[in-house]
Amino acid sequence: MRKYVIMGVQGSGKGTQATMLAEDLDLVHISVGDIFRLNVQQHTKLGAQVRRTMAAGELVGDDLVEGVVKARLAEHDWNFGFIIDGFPRNERQAEFFLESYDIDGVIHLDMPDSEVRRRVLARRLCSGCGMDYNLLASSPQEAGKCDVCGGELIPREDDTEEALAVRLRDYHQKTNPVLDIFRRKEYVVTVDARPDRELVQQAIRAKLGLPPRDLPRPAPAADSKADGRPGGKADGQPSGQAGGQAASQPGRGQPSGQAGGQAGRGQPSGQAGGQAASQPGRGQPSGQAASQPGGGQPGE
Which CATH architecture has domain 2-117+159-208? Predict the structure, then answer.
């Protein structure tokens, strides 16, 4: 069982990196921001309180955060461990966490404030389905429109220069003492959060002594069209067949388990013709709707 804490300023990619680790290691990703956001969307009493705080550009109180985290951890659904972001936020909470849980490591994503501003102010949220976008790295196919539902993309409520300045100041004042407590136990690994997300993930794993992540295979380049036939077919042969082989011959030039003449030649064994391997949802934490405003509250 592995138990990790991931810390970093808003916009450093905590949620993204935590989700990548959780998916590969069968960990439960516990995000304080996700919990608060879900309550806001469901119009609960807690959600109303969080929404008022966000609108004022402030951070949700430490006591409220602590209560939410304790209740979530008490569910004990993390059979293989967990990775938590947005907690602890002060020295008392850090001491409590160390006393209550035998953690394996604290991941600190380091990022200068100038890069934080650039990333945070480029974030957008679908007003319809809640899909999360960043115009720097995951722009929609049609500007201003959600790829999933076609809803309008809008800035998050607290993604303003003024609100961000407050959160950055609060983060640095509270987080440095917390990191010092964890450093005394030699738990902290610090990783530069500015490179590509895959490079950051590999750096995290290397410092934690975990096996490297299998990088996603790039999509094959589209074949050029020949003789007016789609899919790069030429001389009357289906794509992927060796020259001179008849299309009626089953299995030649195809991976094991596919019959001749089926769509999707060249796919891995057992994959249905024409189906593409699914990819994780863009920017969404596992099992949650997207968008996270605020360090330690909705936000990455």
Answer: 3-Layer(aba) Sandwich (3.40)
